[in-house]
Amino acid sequence: MRHSDIEVCSIQRLCVHDGPGIRTTVFMKGCYLRCPWCCNPETIGDSIEYLYNEDKCLLAQGVKSSLCRDCEQVGGIRKKEECPFNAYKPVTHFYSKEELLDILLEDRSLYKESLGGVTFSGGEPFVQAERIAPLLKVLKKEDIHVAVETSCYCPHESLVILDGLVDLYIIDLKFQYGFIKSVSSDYDYLDDFHVNIEYLRRQDKKRIFRMVYIPEALDSDRRRQDILHKLMFLRVSLLQLLPYHNLAISKYKQLGKHMTSFSMPTMEKMLEFKEFLEKNGITCEILNV
Predict the structure, then answer these.
(1) Nearest-angstrom CA–CA distance, 204 and 227
(2) Residue 99 in contact with residue 5, Cβ under 8 Å?
(3) Distance separating alpha carbons of residues 132 and 30, to the nearest angstrom
(4) Is the pLDDT of residue 47 over 90?
(5) What family name appears in the similarity comment (predicted)?
(6) Domain boundaries of the chain, sorted by first residue
(7) pLDDT per residue as tens digits for the range 158-193
(8) E strands, the chain, where?
């Protein structure tokens, strides 16, 4: 790995919910938060991690094989990450600017036809702002629309690094249970969040506000009023609402991480919250993604 390499967890093509048109979404490694409802736990933290698929592990299946005798899980010297059956899959892939650019340009014709482009998500893309800045400069020269999905809980300096290189900021609001601190730092980035939001507003940057609907966090009048107050304070006129899901449960298991369990919202409850917001002057869209 080179210092300038971009750390990526996955790349998804033909996406239609991460900005306008057809897009390629790059899920980047690293995040300043530890949201208990996170659906991309593999992006959290900066350590080297592996997804363990026990269905591919002969030891887990109770199969005796000479190929497994030297595995460290049975006292051998071969690291489990070197399993010949790929039971352990690395979470992070390292790309140079040129390597990642080649992948992103594969669907250039689709971007042009659908008015789409490339979205950087995560995790938190601004963790690697310095690394992706040269890549974004090339994408802009190629006239490709660039979106960034961010919580805006990041150092303001990181936001400034990509200034002029981002066409759309998809802001994932974290108002469900107040601010979620990083477990690895005492610094909470709350001041940076407000500075970043105000900066984007003053610069008249194109913004979309989103929030995950979690019943336990939004089904009481007190919590709804609190969130309404925060939305109005930030001058949010349109909020996209995404239903919480537990589809990441297998990833948590393969990472050996605990997954906090929340209820799946009903459409009735989401429509009720939508009506509540719109009665108070905030347009609300429900996204089924």
Answers:
(1) 23
(2) no
(3) 13
(4) no
(5) Belongs to the organic radical-activating enzymes family.
(6) 6-48+95-286, 50-90
(7) 999 999 999 999 999 998 865 465 555 566 788 899
(8) 6-15, 23-28, 50-52, 88-90, 93-95, 117-121, 145-150, 168-172, 207-213, 238-243, 283-286
Interval 268-288: pLDDT, tens: 999 999 999 999 999 999 998
- pTM for the predicted model, two decimal places: 0.91
Q: pLDDT band for position 156 (50/70/90)?
A: very high
Closest CA to 167 of 128, 111, 122: 111
d(CA 215, CA 218): 5
- Alpha helices by DSSP H, 175-220: 190-202, 215-218
Q: What is the β-pairing status of strands 6-15 and 93-95?
A: antiparallel
| Whole-angstrom distance, CA of residue 190 vs CA of residue 203 | 20
186: Cβ contacts below 8 Å, ≥ 6 apart: none
Q: Which two tokens stand for residue 40?
A: 């991309």
Which superfamily does 6-48+95-286 belong to? Aldolase class I (3.20.20.70)
CA distance 141 to 130: 18
Is 127 in contact with 31 (CB distance < 8 Å)?
yes
Burial zone of 147 (CB within 10 Å; 0-12 exposed, 13-18 middle, 19+ buried): buried
Q: How much of the chain exceeds pLDDT 90, in percent? A: 70
DSSP reduced 3-state for 106: helix
Q: Is 67 helix (H, G, I), strand (E, B) or coil?
A: helix
